[in-house]
């Protein structure tokens, strides 16, 4: 009996490893191609088949070199091609992450920009620190916003946004998981939420915003390097995709000395 249990456990372990690390299969048309091109095609095929989900990290160069029986330099050359194609993004000190070329063909003037894109356009260095994240039922308020059932799950993420290492805003976003299964596995310190939505096929096309002013609590003031009671700009925003579906509700506290708004009408 013990031998049978051990054998069953080994079979289960083998099946799990095979699912997590698909067998190396080179495209038959690439057999005579250089090794880096064969690896590139194998990785591209895995991305297309969904073995590597958008926004998640691929195995390290060392792991891939061992898997394909080659050198890290050869693997790096293969990944370089995927980076140039917009399928993979390298992040110093973290690794390589699955991206998409989903924005191709969409004029930049028609895309809505998030925090990182606005920072880039203003030539500032953006950084994001995750303060908290969780799943929760929508409840009556968010169910009305998203047009979903009250018991449907939302993904909630609270972050501190900084420009040039200076904190400028605290933001909490609520996202209906019916459109973004697995979004909690995406490293949003690497990809912006707007980029992540586009990876899932939901490009933000419209954002409705409402401004207010609020005195900061001691906790929020500390995060923003301000004093308790100092005033902050409160921005409520509902983001809609290209099909006019609400996909994010966000509320943020913004330092008034570091953010301005211009409206055209």
Shape: globular
- List how many beta strands DSSP finds: 8
Secondary-structure element order, N to C: HHHHEEHEHEEHEHEE
Strand content: 25-35%
Figure out the total of helices: 8
Radius of gyration, in Å, reads 22 Å
The chain-level structural class is alpha+beta
Contiguous uncertain segments of 5+ residues: 5-20, 101-111
* Average pLDDT, all residues: 81
Biggest sheet character: 6 strands, antiparallel
User: What share of residues is helical?
Assistant: 25-40%
Strand line-up in the sheet with most strands = 3-4-5-8-7-6
Q: How does this structure look, described?
A:
The chain has 265 residues and is of the alpha+beta class. Strands 3-4-5-8-7-6 form a six-stranded antiparallel β-sheet. Strands 1-2 form a two-stranded antiparallel sheet. Strand 4 and strand 5 form a beta hairpin.
Keywords:
265 residues; alpha+beta; two-stranded antiparallel sheet; 8 helices; globular
Present the secondary structure layout.
Blueprint: H1 2-20, H2 35-49, H3 61-68, H4 72-84, E1 88-91, E2 95-98, H5 115-121, E3 126-137, H6 139-146, E4 153-163, E5 166-176, H7 193-199, E6 204-215, H8 218-223, E7 231-241, E8 246-255
Helix pairs in contact: 2-4, 3-4
Describe the structure in brief:
By secondary structure, the chain is an alpha+beta fold. It has 8 helices and 8 strands.
């Amino acid at each position: 009996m013990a031998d049978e249990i051990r054998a069953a456990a080994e079979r289960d372990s083998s099946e799990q490893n095979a699912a997590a690390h698909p067998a190396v299969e080179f495209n038959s048309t690439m057999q005579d191609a250089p090794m880096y091109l064969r690896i590139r095609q194998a990785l591209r095929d895995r991305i297309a088949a969904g073995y590597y989900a958008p926004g998640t990290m691929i195995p390290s160069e060392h792991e891939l070199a061992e898997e394909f029986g080659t050198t890290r330099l050869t693997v790096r050359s293969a990944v370089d091609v995927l980076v140039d194609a917009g399928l993979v993004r390298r992040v110093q000190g973290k690794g390589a992450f699955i991206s998409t070329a989903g924005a191709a063909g969409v004029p930049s003037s028609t895309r809505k920009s998030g925090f990182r894109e606005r920072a880039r356009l203003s030539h500032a260095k953006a950084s994001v620190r995750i303060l908290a994240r969780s799943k929760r039922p929508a409840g009556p308020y968010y169910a009305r916003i998203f047009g979903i059932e009250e018991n449907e799950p939302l993904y909630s993420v609270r972050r501190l946004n900084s420009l040039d290492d200076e904190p400028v805003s605290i933001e909490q976003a609520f996202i209906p998981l019916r459109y973004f299964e697995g979004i909690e596995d995406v490293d949003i310190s690497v990809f912006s939420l707007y980029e992540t939505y586009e990876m899932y096929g939901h490009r933000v096309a419209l954002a409705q915003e409402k401004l207010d002013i609020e005195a900061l609590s001691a906790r929020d003031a500390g995060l923003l390097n301000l004093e308790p009671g100092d005033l902050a700009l409160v921005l409520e925003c509902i983001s809609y995709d290209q099909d006019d579906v609400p996909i994010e509700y966000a509320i943020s506290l913004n330092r008034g000395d570091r953010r301005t708004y211009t409206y055209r009408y």
